[in-house]
TrEMBL record, chain A:
<keyword id="KW-0694">RNA-binding</keyword>
<feature type="binding site">
    <location>
        <begin position="247"/>
        <end position="250"/>
    </location>
    <ligand>
        <name>GTP</name>
    </ligand>
</feature>
<dbReference type="InterPro" id="IPR004125">
    <property type="entry name" value="Signal_recog_particle_SRP54_M"/>
</dbReference>
<dbReference type="InterPro" id="IPR027417">
    <property type="entry name" value="P-loop_NTPase"/>
</dbReference>
<dbReference type="Pfam" id="PF02881">
    <property type="entry name" value="SRP54_N"/>
</dbReference>
<keyword id="KW-0378">Hydrolase</keyword>
<keyword id="KW-0175">Coiled coil</keyword>
<comment type="similarity">
    <text>Belongs to the GTP-binding SRP family. SRP54 subfamily.</text>
</comment>
<dbReference type="InterPro" id="IPR013822">
    <property type="entry name" value="Signal_recog_particl_SRP54_hlx"/>
</dbReference>
From TrEMBL, chain B:
<dbReference type="InterPro" id="IPR036225">
    <property type="entry name" value="SRP/SRP_N"/>
</dbReference>
<dbReference type="InterPro" id="IPR027417">
    <property type="entry name" value="P-loop_NTPase"/>
</dbReference>
<keyword id="KW-1003">Cell membrane</keyword>
<dbReference type="GO" id="GO:0003924">
    <property type="term" value="F:GTPase activity"/>
</dbReference>
<dbReference type="GO" id="GO:0006614">
    <property type="term" value="P:SRP-dependent cotranslational protein targeting to membrane"/>
</dbReference>
<protein>
    <recommendedName>
        <fullName>Signal recognition particle receptor FtsY</fullName>
        <ecNumber>3.6.5.4</ecNumber>
    </recommendedName>
</protein>
<dbReference type="GO" id="GO:0005047">
    <property type="term" value="F:signal recognition particle binding"/>
</dbReference>
<dbReference type="InterPro" id="IPR000897">
    <property type="entry name" value="SRP54_GTPase_dom"/>
</dbReference>
<feature type="binding site">
    <location>
        <begin position="108"/>
        <end position="115"/>
    </location>
    <ligand>
        <name>GTP</name>
    </ligand>
</feature>
Length: 478, 303
């Protein structure tokens, strides 16, 4: 059921030879698979129908690019259409010309409104705003208290009138309070409600009429199913939603509801929420969600970005070195630099399936600073040490630590990681001898649970760790 | 209001939505592929999922052939029958301890309604004259303890709690001791919402489970997985993961009072053979009902 689309497409279209143009039959076959993938990802049935129709129309008669099979060509079209439909990244909120800017947070029960309100407040605070959170959920027991506790955590004031008050009055008084205390952003946390609860929906309308929000953000659980269509429709028609926040995207959901909501309301998805810890909200990346819905992980976008960033020649050389297990710390540094071009490392690593399974990796916060430190450590070594890390005794480690302004522990960590990586490479190249070059690559790809995208060559360095890690896990199992 | 009525009222929206589509299909003149296609679509729109939708339609098609049915009007009965068959053979009663307190562990991802379900379940048990203790095992989320305390007050149940950030296993340990001392009949353990794909949080849950079974022989008597009725196919993955870690014995599906259809119940029962035991049909303290497969199937495919 959760098999990647690329896989099933490939199978469905295996019999088709690469030929000039996509025929109606090619597309027909492919569309069946696309439909299933979208449905399995919880995209609404109607939305799927429209979408598939659009893609079909666009795909028929298209030239199949030389490097792609018809199946891949179709995936590419689907992916592009999906990304486009999902819209650009729009993380900016409409700010009121005369502060305070008023933001209403609305949504179903348990979608994560209160947590999201706090995250948004923190994002504002980080940008030198003075937010005020208004606790207008008088229905759920202890909801006000929850917001108050979160407010204290992130040092943002919370306005409330207790559970006995009318939420509309609380919102009004909250905005007045913001004016009085000079807060420039008011975030109103409303109670969760089903969209069919007439009384509660009217309450939101009254609130909107009173406080004139600049933004009405619909908070949606990314795991939501088919009903997203009704929820989005109802909230949008009654309140004119201005943006969507997709929460719990750190789960393993495909997140098809996002597509449904986008298609139904046309509202941009402005932020995504990951995790329960109160951290600033993250920007929304349409391309990533598109490949996620299609069930291709983020592999597709990784490959695309890798192809752009990595210089062919370096890639080839490094590949050669990796295969011969002549991978030195200098190469490691080069690899780091290449990887850096691809974007924030933690995202990149999380895109490579299985990468967090590697021992030691999970303890590192893979931010860019960490990168620079690793680079500094390597640069503080002599060429000899870089080529042959075995000579790194305690005194050398101390020297390097001093030279690069880090602790000896960090130097040790880096050397350990490097060693692990080297070992993986060795295993990888060992296999290479057994199966031959292409065989090894294919074996490695089979070890991955990800769809064979037919992109196995040329292997770009940034993909090696993923493969190597998978490889190593597999060999351990033997 | 009778149980069935209440159930049907709660599912009214669901029924309208599904029935609206099915009625269209069933009112056609001839029994052709279009009818079955539309039936499949209606099932998909109810979160039944691709596999089970296809399977259900196939069942109906087979039955129609066998019984030589020629008009679409007779299909709802067949569909209901197929659904009931898929849900059949599940024990929906709650297990209890032969002697001493029965402990129910309530688990699920964030925001599905675990605490609310505990409140409602506690209320039901108290109404039947039982003595119930709540264990505030969600020590992570801000004000989760206060939320459970509010429910405890409403339902008339004692709440055993530590402070936020405490070890949930220790809370449960204390609750068991308190239940023994106060001769309580039931211990309902709340736990923090956790995404099923977070290994460390699942490990924590497994620890709570271990403590429970060590401190109270035969416990937990039920591990109740709470699923949000508006969740799509991810509910399958949730069930799978929680079942592996804490041997889920029953499911409570919440929020079925909206337009959500809760159709995901069908593939879950079919694939994992875990019975759905409760359905949440609203925010009131009385809005928790035992799951009844035939009224669920009935409500879903009949007008």
């Amino acid at each position: 059921m959760l098999e990647g689309l690329a896989n099933s497409l490939q199978r469905a279209l295996a019999k088709l030879k690469a030929k000039g143009k996509l025929t109606e039959e090619d597309v027909q076959e492919a569309m069946r698979e696309v439909r299933l993938a979208l449905l399995a990802a919880d995209v609404n049935v109607k939305v799927v129908k429209d979408f598939v129709e659009r893609v079909r129309a666009r795909a028929i008669g298209q030239e199949v690019q030389q490097s792609l099979t018809p199946g891949q060509q179709v995936v590419k079209i689907v992916y592009e259409e999906l990304t486009e439909l999902m819209g650009g990244s729009q993380t900016r909120l409409r700010m009121a010309p005369h502060p305070p800017t008023v933001v209403m947070m609305v949504g179903l029960q348990g979608s994560g409104k209160t947590t999201t309100t706090a995250k948004l407040a923190l994002s504002f605070r980080r940008h030198q705003h003075r937010p005020l959170m208004v606790a207008a959920d008088v229905y759920r027991p202890a909801a006000i208290r929850q917001l108050e506790v979160l407010g204290r955590q992130i040092d943002v004031p919370v306005f409330s009138l207790g559970e006995g008050e009318d939420p509309v009055r609380i919102a009004e008084a909250g905005v007045a309070e913001a004016r009085r205390m000079g807060a420039d952003v008011v975030l109103i946390d409303t109670a969760g409600r089903t969209h069919v609860d007439e009384a509660l929906m009217q309450e939101l309308e009254r609130m909107q009429a009173q406080v004139h929000p600049d933004e009405v953000l619909l908070v949606v659980d990314a795991m939501m199913g088919q009903d997203a269509v009704h929820v989005a429709e109802a909230f949008h028609t009654r309140l004119g939603v201005t943006g969507v926040v997709l929460t719990k995207l750190d789960s393993d959901t495909r997140g098809g509801a996002a597509l449904t909501i986008r298609a139904v309301t046309g509202c941009p998805i402005k932020f995504v929420g990951m995790g329960e810890k109160i951290e600033p909200l993250e920007a929304f990346h349409p391309d990533r969600l598109a490949s996620r819905i299609l069930g291709m992980g983020d592999v597709l976008s990784l490959i695309e970005r890798a192809q752009q960033a990595v210089d062919e020649q370096t890639a080839k050389e490094m590949e050669q070195k990796l295969r011969q297990a002549r991978f030195t710390l200098d190469d490691f540094r080069q690899w780091l630099q290449q990887a850096q071009k691809l974007g924030p490392l933690d995202q990149l690593l999380s895109m490579i399936p299985g990468v967090n399974k590697l021992k030691g990796i999970e303890n590192l916060s893979w931010d860019d600073k960490r990168f620079k430190r690793m680079e500094a450590i390597i640069l503080s070594m002599t060429p000899e040490e870089r080529a042959n890390p075995d000579v790194m005794n305690a005194s050398r480690r101390r020297r390097v630590a001093n030279g690069s302004g880090v602790t000896v522990r960090e130097v040790n960590q880096l050397l350990n990681q490097f060693e692990q990586m080297q070992q993986m490479m060795k295993r990888f190249s060992g296999l290479g001898r057994r199966f031959g070059r292409r065989g090894a690559a294919l074996q490695a790809l089979k070890g991955l649970d990800l769809p064979d995208l037919g992109m196995s060559e040329p292997l770009s360095p940034s993909r090696h760790p993923g493969e190597g890690r998978r490889r190593s896990r597999k060999s351990k199992r033997r | 209001m009778g149980l069935l009525d209440k159930f049907r009222k709660g599912l009214e929206k669901s029924r309208e939505a599904v029935w609206g589509r099915l009625a269209q299909a069933f009112s056609r003149q001839r029994l052709d592929d279009t009818v079955f296609d539309e039936m499949e679509e209606a099932l998909l729109a109810a979160d039944v999922g691709v596999e089970t939708s296809v399977w259900l339609v196939e069942q109906v098609r087979k039955k129609a052939r066998e019984q030589r049915i020629a008009t679409p009007e007779e299909l709802p009965a067949l569909l209901q029958q197929a659904m009931e068959e898929a849900l059949a053979g599940m024990d929906v009663t709650m297990r209890t301890a032969a002697a001493g307190p029965s402990l129910y562990l309530v688990v699920g991802v964030n925001g599905v309604g675990k605490t609310t379900t505990i409140g409602k379940l506690g209320h039901r048990l108290v109404q039947r004259g039982a003595r119930v203790i709540f264990a505030a095992g969600d020590t992570f989320r801000a004000a989760a303890i206060e939320q459970l305390q509010a429910w405890g007050k409403r339902a008339g149940c004692d709440v055993v709690h530590h402070s936020q950030g405490a070890d949930p296993a220790a809370v449960v340990y204390d609750a068991i001791a308190a239940a023994k001392a106060r001769r309580a009949d039931y211990i309902l353990c709340d736990t923090a919402g956790r995404l099923h794909n977070k290994a460390h949080l699942m490990a924590e849950l497994s620890k709570i489970h271990k403590v429970v079974s060590r401190e109270l022989p035969g416990a937990p008597h039920e591990v109740l997985l709470v699923l949000d009725g508006t969740t799509g196919q991810n509910a399958m993955l949730q069930t799978k993961a929680f079942k592996e870690v804490v041997q889920v014995t029953g499911i409570a599906v919440t929020k079925l009072d909206s337009t959500a259809k809760g159709g995901v119940i069908l593939p879950i029962v079919r694939e994992f053979r875990v019975p759905v035991k409760w359905v949440g049909l609203g925010e009131g303290i009385d809005d928790l009902e035992p799951f009844d497969p035939s009224s669920f199937a009935h409500a879903l495919c009949r007008s």
